[in-house]
Design brief:
CATH superfamily of the largest domain: tRNA-splicing ligase RtcB
GO molecular function: GTP binding; metal ion binding; RNA ligase (ATP) activity; RNA ligase (GTP) activity
Cofactor: Mn(2+)
CATH class of the largest domain: Alpha Beta
Subunit structure: Monomer.
Number of strands: 19
Helix content: 25-40%
Number of helices: 18
EC number: 6.5.1.-
Strand content: 25-35%
Distance between the termini: 33 Å
Radius of gyration: 21 Å
CATH topology of the largest domain: tRNA-splicing ligase RtcB
InterPro entries: RtcB (IPR001233), RtcB-like_sf (IPR036025)
DNA sequence: ATGTGC
């Protein structure tokens, strides 16, 4: 695209021209370079979001934004249920509550360098990964509903992890308002043997080291020091979240599965823009409430999944490094719709904030943060592409007014999976990463080509843009040593 | 992201 028509508001904020149907402005956060590289589809999608009923303040794209199903990935939009606000499947994303958690290990890079290979093999054996791969747990009978209602709280109750973990997870590890009865039996069946598994695509389990401290005070609050080893887990709700999204799209979008099967698909009364992918339902409607009940079950599923994987990782470390203590720094989801309190025109309101490929980023002092983190702000875990840096940022006070306390979630794709496969060879990438000291283990070398660092934006540029826009403050930069890749 | 398809 050209920058023609975008109005610059400061160094890292751009407003799209208001076109017909837009109820609020559409805002892109990012440097000149990142905004210039965004494709037209991403901006068209952002405009569509700005047309939805009940949207508050603005439709926003984070610096890592790219086009997705309906909403852009890297999109943030808040809706007011009292003014016809909607909830959208494409606004949450297919992998409901996909997210990142980071564990501190108490080890340093020097401790583990000589045993990287052994660690890579052990983690790869212990944590199932890859398309369709199941885990070690089979959910029988009542267990499924209990997991969907209880999230990480359920998992800790079953012996996966420790109670102290729960304080370091959004919502104490359990999203309230989940209604497992609104999850289809088909969706339930898909998670039956998948709990405690990574999945595929951009999901990973990485052992990283803290290469640079960028904010000493906040790093101290997060217990991070230069040279420290941390473990980051990036995954979501596997087939269950995907199926929940698909089920509701099929039900609510005209031209969906019902029509393809020749059944009478009722025209969807909730589709306000001419794009089937923008399917949504009023928050205050029967299907809206039903989707929220199912989607929150998907959130709990992802929280339980990351909790079980944490347990598996701890078992591996207990074997190889018996002195290590794997304390949870934080767990943050980046595909959600959450009911949150925000100040709009001087009044506190409950808004339904969609963050799709965007993280919550609460500023210092927020009451939802655990006491130990309250002074520093919420850890914002920004996952890098394979073999590249990741960042730990912290939420800011300005972020509340700028982006409903939201920030970027990762590097963000620039090449499609197909294009990445054309340009890169998985085995060659693994070999060159090995030369750089990064030990990669995977079920799929094709997946490695799709996840080539060259298929992603520059994460340094993304995080410096988020910082420049005031959405989050850089705390530490990490580099990978071991990567188990879906 | 995804039993990488209906």
């Amino acid at each position: 695209m050209t920058l023609h028509g975008l109005a610059r508001h400061g160094e890292f904020e751009w407003h799209l021209p208001m076109t017909s149907g837009m109820r609020v402005p559409a805002i892109v956060f990012g440097s000149l370079e990142l905004v210039r590289a965004m494709d037209d589809k991403t901006l068209t999608q952002l405009r569509n979001v700005a047309c939805l009923p009940g949207i508050v303040r603005a439709a926003m794209a984070m610096p890592d934004a790219h086009s997705g199903y309906g909403f852009p990935i890297g999109g943030v939009a808040a809706f007011d249920p009292a003014h016809g606000g909607v909830v959208s499947m494409g606004g949450v994303g297919f992998d409901i509550s996909c997210g990142v958690r980071t564990l501190l290990t108490g080890l340093t890079r020097d401790h583990i360098l000589a045993r990287r290979e052994e660690l890579a093999d052990a983690l790869f054996r212990a944590v199932p990964s890859g398309v369709g791969r199941g885990g070690t747990i089979i959910l029988e009978g009542e267990d499924l509903a209990a997991m969907l209602e209880g999230g990480a709280v359920w998992a800790v109750g079953r012996g996966y992890g420790q109670p102290a973990d729960l304080g370091r997870i959004e919502d104490g590890g359990r999203m309230p308002g989940a209604v497992p009865g609104h999850v289809s039996p088909h969706a339930g069946k898909r998670i039956r043997d998948q709990l405690g598994s990574l999945g595929s695509g951009n999901h990973y389990l990485e052992v990283q080291w803290v290469e640079k401290i960028l904010d000493p005070a906040r790093s101290a609050a997060f217990a991070l020091k230069e040279g420290d080893v941390v473990v980051s887990i990036h995954c979501g709700s596997r087939g269950l979240g995907h199926q929940i999204g698909q089920d509701f799209i099929d039900e609510l979008a005209p031209g969906g599965k019902a029509r393809r099967k020749g059944k009478n698909a009722a025209p969807n009364p909730y589709l306000p823009v001419p794009d089937r992918e923008m399917v949504c339902a009023p928050i205050d409607s029967e299907p809206g409430r039903r989707y929220l009940g199912a989607m929150r079950s998907g959130i709990n599923c992802a929280l339980a999944n990351r909790q079980v994987i944490t347990h598996l990782v701890r078992e591996v470390f207990a074997d190889i490094f018996p002195t290590a203590r794997l304390d949870l720094l934080y767990d943050v989801s980046h595909n959600t719709c959450r009911a949150e309190s925000h100040r709009v025109d001087g009044k506190e309101k409950t808004l339904f904030v969609h963050r799709k490929g965007a993280t919550r980023a609460l500023g210092p002092g927020h009451p939802d943060l655990p006491a130990a983190l309250r002074g520093a702000g919420q850890p914002v875990l920004v996952g890098g592409s394979m073999g590249t840096a990741s960042y730990i940022l912290a939420g800011t006070t300005e972020g509340e007014a700028r982006s409903f306390s939201s920030a970027c979630h990762g590097a963000g794709r620039v090449l499609s999976r197909t294009e990445a496969r054309r340009r890169f060879v998985g085995r060659d990438l693994m070999e060159s990463l090995r030369h750089q000291g990064v030990f990669v283990r995977t079920m799929s070398s094709r997946g490695i080509a799709e996840e080539a660092p060259g298929a992603y934006k520059d994460i340094d540029e993304v995080t410096s843009s988020a910082a420049g826009a005031g959405l989050a403050a850089p705390v530490a930069r990490t580099l990978p040593l071991v990567c188990v890749k879906g």
